[in-house]
Design brief:
The complex is a heterotrimer of chains A (197), B (388) and C (182). Chain A has 197 residues and is an alpha/beta fold. In chain A, 21% of the residues lie in helices and 26% in strands. In chain A, a hairpin with a 2-residue loop joins strand 8 (153-154) and strand 9. With 182 residues, chain C is of the alpha+beta class. Classes of the chains: A alpha/beta (197), B alpha+beta (388), C alpha+beta (182). Chains in contact: A-B, A-C, B-C.
Chain lengths: 197, 388, 182
Amino acid sequence: MLNEVASFLNSAVSGCGATAHTPEVGHGHVLVESAHLHACAKALNESDEFDMNVLQVVSGVDYPERIEVNYMLASFTKNTEMILKVKLPKTSPTETVEVDSVVDIWKSANFLERETYDMLGVVFKNHPDHRRILCPEDWEGFPLRKDYVVQKEWEGMEINPAHKVNSGDHFFFKDVIAKMGGDEKKVTYSWKSDAEA
Amino acid sequence: MIEIDGKEIGDLSSFNTEKIKSDLLTLNMGPQHPATHGVLRVEIKTDSEIIAEATPYLGYLHRCFEKHVENVDYRGVIPFVDRMDYLGAMGMEWGYSLTIEKMLGTEVPRRAEYIRVLVAELQRIAGHLLFFGTYAIDLGAFSPFLYAFDEREKILRFFEELSGARLLYNYVWIGGVWNDITDDQLRRIKKFIDNFDEELKVFHSLVGENKIFIERTANVGIVSEEMAYQYGATGPVLRGSGIDWDLRKKRPYGIYEEFDFDVQVGRGEKGTLGDCWDRYDVRVREMHESVKIVRQCLEGIEEGSIMGKVPKVLKVPEGEIYMRTECPRGELGYHLVSDGGKTPYRLKVKSSCFTHVSMLPEMAPGQMVADFVASIGSIDIVLGEVDR
Amino acid sequence: MSGLTPDISEYATRESMVHQEELTFGKWLGNIWKAVSTCFKGMMITGKYIVARKPVTIEYPEVREELPANSRSRLFNDVDNCIACLQCAAACPVDCIYITATRRDKEAPKLKTDDGTPLKLDLKQYTIDTALCCYCGLCTTVCPTECLTHTTDYEFAQYTLGEMKYDYLAEDIRAWKHRVRG
């Protein structure tokens, strides 16, 4: 089915560069150029052949060089589903990337795109209400990026304060190693983190 | 001349009242509000009693579990997915296990499949009973809540014996289920189910046929077919709008294709199709269907092992998958991206409650505040799943 | 003063107002009859519950409920049988188990667990931070000597966070062994 969707998109939207990918494991997807995403989505929604009338979820995935945004489309009349994917290259970790919003095609995209913006820093152009949704409005950074570091303070409140975390016993193994004459091979311990107390 | 308390305050005859526009009153409903079923804040702008605008604010229960599971091995994710929809945890676990099994190509033993259907349908009954009870409370009836919780308690007690926990079971594992079910337990479920069918009819006549309840819910919070598609509604909300769509029938997973049951859709019996009463009615009739499935399960359950062959160190092959299952509150989808390691590279959850909350701004305008409470109750959201 | 009354058509039309049919006297009487009769029916059901149903709740501090045998409540580790394999700590999704063990001297007397596994390590620390624990039960399923188990105790509230930390090598917790293991 993905091949048919790709050829349909190539004929309906010129220059969208739709390609179908069908891997051996898991589900395949149709990749389109990010500039033509809105046109492709509109074509899929309006075509009688595919009739993708439901946008189920917008799922962003962060990679070192790019952010992929997946649109899980489904047709409840034809009982089909597919993944429409765009790749948005990014050069620096903090940079936001841009893609067209599809709110005017599916209204469910409103909250879903806001969530993707909140979590991954994908800016959706022409979105009617482009705000953060799950994090506070003045939160810094995008939590689901791989290189995200949580901020130290928010509105005068310390984040993860020490008195709220039980500690002390985590590094008991260090005392034991010292007692054993510094021979680490004689001691086994469960603490995995490199973080210091 | 207009006089107040004997004093002349002037002539208002030249005053153009047409130009006076009453200001909208901003009212915060929640986060701590019993009718929002959790920590949902809805900022409503009301004109006297009528709502002009409603904006939901989410995130009060946000844990960012999607980030957390990127550092947890595949088996350790199950306790986290439990905590999304804590009232339908069996469905959450099954959806996740199904996603991983599909990637690994694991075959699940028949007995485990039967147990999964059994617990998922009992969970659906428990979830809908909770909806039934709390919805009655939202609309001002208290005793149905107690009766529903009495029945729900029996299911939870059974789950506790089976898995060890009352809400967060960690029971459906990748490749099978944790504990085997005993014949004695099956006998007790049968006894419960036989009794429950009758009990449910009593419940329905207590609440669903009550004139006051019908007046409060019929023609309120209408979700049209077009709107349901536009907002990606699923589960009882979609079926309440008269759309015959149930994943268990349309895209069967597990062994659902072997079971004989009907998909219940809204009929618009008491008012317009897709109103609050239809959604309530669909859920009640779905409980009867679940009873049917549980009965067939008890008859057909097979002997055998309960755990398929799963490697001890789980490594999911590279690739991506999007799997969805029918949970009590709607479809639950898992988008898993694996890089071939021991932990998920990305696990995105499609939460039905999240999409249902996005319908509120369109449902609210023109409603009375009390009707808005009925609308929120009828879409049956669990904030653990909305915020994740 | 028509301008002061809110004009609801500005936002949307209230569904129930639109769909309301014309109310005749007969319909009005019918509505009242329906309301009274269905409410009476509901009261009958509630009455039946009052008379025929036994209470399902228990009076908690006086009457205590016995949880099912495989209920997942407070964790107990029988340190005499623990071989410090660290599997529980690896399986824990919230990393709340802290174990430290040293290699046993070759000259020391040989020890075995109850199921015959030789002890090669001396356990120096076995602590579970129950304030972090999510009671998922994954640690007990991987335990090879079955020394780590869930008990059915459910009353273990504490005043401070530090008290939520259980040091299973301490004498008072070791003393649970006879109660838990029977």
